[in-house]
Write a structure and sequence with these properties.
Chains A, B: It comes from Aspergillus homomorphus (strain CBS 101889). Chains A, B: Homodimer. Chains A, B: This is Glutamate pyruvate transaminase. Chains A, B: One of its GO terms (molecular function) is transaminase activity. Two copies of one chain form a homodimer. Chain A has two domains: 154 residues, Alpha-Beta Complex (Aspartate Aminotransferase, domain 1), CATH 3.90.1150; 240 residues, Type I PLP-dependent aspartate aminotransferase-like (Major domain) (Aspartate Aminotransferase, domain 2, 3-Layer(aba) Sandwich). The first copy, chain A, is globular and about 65 Å long. In chain A, helix 16 crosses helix 17 and helix 17 packs across helix 18. In chain A, the strands form six sheets. Chain A has a seven-stranded mixed sheet, sandwiched between helices. Chain A has a three-stranded antiparallel sheet with strand order 14-18-17. Chain A has 556 residues and is an alpha/beta fold. Chains A and B meet through strand 2, helix 2, helix 4, helix 5 and helix 8 of A and strand 1, helix 2, helix 4, helix 5 and helix 8 of B.
């Protein structure tokens, strides 16, 4: 075990359990087991070395006496240790909520407590696509319906809902439709999701793509993450199974493959072609993986891209589907940013596949596709509700039945999140009472995202050594940062990756929290960071410009 | 592949994707890929043999012509098949939503459509603990707060909330406290759960047990199922890892162990000691498993029991903790039914452990315990909201940090479900405006459960060959049924387990849906069924009595 605490002999048989502060932000408590009301301490693990400090909230006078008397010499002896738990869990990496985010939260708390010693007056959380943590207001229609679903007794006074709270009639009507199907949002639904909601999703897909969709191929999920986990759990059959994953990527994919002890087969996106897919890179890595004995079964595409912000062209999508058809790869299309597109138009993998099946008879018939969507992104931004779905296309029905069995073990996705999926795919339409406000709110969010994306992009244009692709979609920019040799040396001296070093200094100087490119994977000898463009205002872009120029001067 | 469809030669290159009706109730669609708008069929897999029937909702005249012309000779050739997907998923069994439940749903639909040919006029879903699917009304205080959390704009007119909708002031106040912490229920929270909610849970545990609890040891979850999955994922390190699981059990445990390719080490509960734990049975099976090379790491206890309804005594709990201490087993205490106790009082594993640590210095110090709770059961009954938590006691902080990393990959549990956990553990107290109604609703539900449990129990007493332990807790009774030899032969002739045969006949005759004991595991040569006592009224118990006496007469 990596940590040992020594206690005086009278306590030797009594291990401590300890509060540990992790970079992840997890806090775990510690109480002496014999006298839990009289003995408590916190141990902070920094760089593996325990530090003990008194926990004022739990300690009595007696405890303090105890604490000061004891020497830390006892040994913890847990049944489960880092050395014997599931090694796949240990191997998994997930850095989105890492050290820099934790430090940013500490700064936020200090500012809230009136600390004037920091060189900034606000913390900007640009590290995570969490719109409602920042200024994004929920869309009124959605939340009005959800409030009635949570308390249907409100429906007994529709007059007051209308006059005192401005609830339009279509809010009331929609609530009744949903309740007629789910009965209560407190009851388990069908494990694939409530039938009426899957019907709505199927209609949405049909309208989006111009090709039919069947409610029976749809699985409602607790956010897209849970859908990805389900799919990879079914697809991967052990250590030789491999899945092609774009680099840079959202680390959910590599983490889940680690948990399954399966192989991540990376393929680099082409930064200089606006982060598009590079067919040669895919084929080359596929061949290498096959030669190494990996049974490559699937390819993940994130479109629009996370962290790249890229929106794939019809040609790019075709080339992926071509490889999938030729190489017998299941396509996992992560399309959670499908409405976050600024230039051009979103094309779904399903639509492109159906087009190609019509255009080139035979060739694409065997392609299996799973495409994912979510209420967390887009103009909905309802991450905390954990709603989403995936559609299966071309799957063997027996495999789909296994997917059903798998999801049924967890009973059903959150029902209120399912209802939100329904509202997302079936929003108010022209002529309905909620339509005007809905359009206004929707467009307001979309315009805000676009203008902030452009402001950031323009700021990056001015910055020495920074290259950024034009914003196309999603909620992110992922600029390259070319740092001076001295900065890279200074980072190495601190035992840090150079992008991490840069991002930490950015946070310390400006209060702006972004994620180093190494958290997503990047081409060798390149450095990046990912920033969202969700935070209110655009002037914080200038904070980055100022910091960058000072940083470059310092390490010139 | 188990299924092959043959098509006429002009369609040979075009595999079908098919709607498959599974006993699970999953429906998967089927469209011919070349002409998705013109071609559709449904294939029903019964006993592995495909039957094709027209799908009236999707078919055009053209399609029908196509369908009748074709012969089914083409071969589906999917990349993923039953033969190459994750074998652990394939091996997992989860029967709670099985064939009998599907048939009951079909009967419900027929009755709703006016079918008069059935020998009953309502279907009673006694197969699943889903209170709000039946008559249980949500508790007003909970849903009032949730409605405001979903639409905080309602807070702008508190006067109308009070006068037009009867919202008490404490509902408004509580909403504000929760919103101050989570900001928006649409934002991701901390991956362990929102801080203010973990604080409330810790206070609840302290008050329940008289021993301290630390918010930093608590992990909010999407229902207890997700907590169990997390814990088993971390604990099990491969095929030699084993977990002791009570028999009969809730099949989540065996299914999750299958998914992890770990060993379920069963131990029989002692039916004749009110389904208590049998120390000798645990020790015997533990020894056998060890001798067979299994590294037994943990023991699961479900208290109050599912499906048994038993409530463990202080002595039973002590004996489990003793074995855990001696044999170095992590204890997983599934305590989701902790408020569903009719006789005696619920004792938590945490409380008992702390008592024993005080009473017998040294012996119990190394016990690691994870205890789970949920909003799905109790008088809350909010299954669809997927809320719950687990508390870690005595875990190595480094292992707890790995659990944190694991849960952070899925970002956070549903935030509205987290808020419901807060309301469950911190309900209105005496003197607060919502208190009287809360008590009335809470007690009404509790009394209803008790009286229905007793009515069922009394009915079982009258039934020949049926033995049932006195109701103690949870939402279930799990009677033994001693069936005549002729019934067992008749079941065998239909290739069915005898308990399944009995439950199917019960459904066909009465519309009452229960789950055969074989779905939970039972002692060899015994037969049981599990029934909830959630359905409204008590007269349906008489339907069972009548059926049983006719069944016994028929097979005498």
């Amino acid at each position: 075990m990596a940590w040992q605490l020594k206690l005086a002999s009278h306590l030797r048989a009594s291990p401590l359990r300890c509060s540990v502060s992790r970079p992840s932000g997890a806090w775990l408590s510690c109480h002496h087991q014999h006298a839990p009301r009289h003995f408590s301490s916190r141990v902070s693990l920094a760089a593996g070395i325990p530090r003990v400090s008194p926990d004022s909230t739990m300690q009595s006078q007696t405890t303090l006496a105890h604490t000061t008397r004891r020497t830390l010499t006892a040994v913890a002896s847990c049944r489960l240790t880092l050395d014997n738990i599931n090694p796949n869990v240990k191997a998994a990496k997930y850095a989105v909520r890492g050290e820099i985010a934790t430090k940013a939260e500490e700064y936020r708390v200090r500012l809230a407590q009136g600390d004037k010693s920091l060189p900034f007056d606000s913390v900007i959380f640009a590290n995570i696509g969490n719109p409602q943590q920042l200024d994004q207001k929920p869309i009124s229609f959605f939340r009005q319906v959800l409030s009635l679903l949570e308390n249907p007794l409100l429906l007994e006074n529709p007059e007051s809902l209308r006059t005192n709270f401005g609830y339009p009639q279509d809010v009331i009507d929609r609530t009744k439709v949903l309740l007629a199907d789910v009965q209560s949002v407190g009851a388990y639904s069908h494990s694939q999701g409530a039938p009426v909601i899957r019907d709505s999703v199927a209609k949405f897909i049909e309208q989006r793509d111009g090709f039919p969709a069947n409610p029976q191929d749809l699985f409602l999920t607790a956010g897209a993450s849970s859908g990805v986990s389900t799919l990879l759990n079914v697809i991967c059959d052990g250590p030789s199974a491999g899945v092609l994953v774009p680099i840079p990527q959202y680390p959910l994919y590599t983490a889940t493959l680690s948990l399954l002890d399966a192989q991540c087969v990376p393929y680099l996106l082409d930064e200089h072609k606006a982060w598009g897919t590079d067919v040669d890179a895919i084929k080359e890595n596929l061949s290498k993986a096959k030669a190494a004995g990996t049974d490559v079964r699937a390819i993940v595409v994130i479109n629009p891209g996370n962290p790249t912000g890229a929106s794939l062209s019809a040609e790019d999508i075709k080339s992926v589907l071509e490889i999938a058809a030729e190489e017998r790869l299941v396509v996992i299309a992560d399309e959670v940013y499908q409405t976050n597109v600024f230039s051009g138009e979103f094309i779904s993998f399903k639509k492109r596949l159906r087009q190609l099946q019509q255009e080139v008879p035979g060739k694409y018939d065997n392609v299996e596709l799973a495409s994912l969507h979510s209420v967390s992104k887009g103009m909905v931004g309802e991450c905390g509700h954990r709603g989403g779905y995936f559609e299966l296309v071309g799957f063997d029905p027996e495999v789909a039945a296994q997917i059903y069995k798998y999801v049924s073990i967890m009973l059903c996705p959150p029902v209120i999140g399912q209802c939100l999926v329904e509202l997302m795919v079936n929003p108010p339409t022209e002529g309905e009472p909620s339509y005007e406000l809905y359009r206004k709110e929707y467009n307001g969010i979309k315009d805000g995202l676009r203008s902030r994306a452009l402001a950031l992009y323009e700021a990056f244009q001015k910055m020495e050594g920074v290259e950024c692709q034009e914003p196309q979609g999603a909620m992110y920019l992922f600029p390259t940062i070319n740092l001076p040799a001295k900065a890279i040396e200074a980072a190495a001296a601190e035992n840090r990756a150079a992008d991490e070093f840069y991002c930490l200094q950015l946070l310390d100087a400006t209060g702006i929290c972004v994620v180093p490119g190494s958290g997503f994977g990047q081409k060798e000898n390149t450095l990046h960071f990912r920033t969202t463009f969700l935070a209110p205002g655009t002037d914080w872009a200038q904070r980055i410009v100022k910091f960058h120029s000072e940083f470059m001067a310092k390490y010139k």
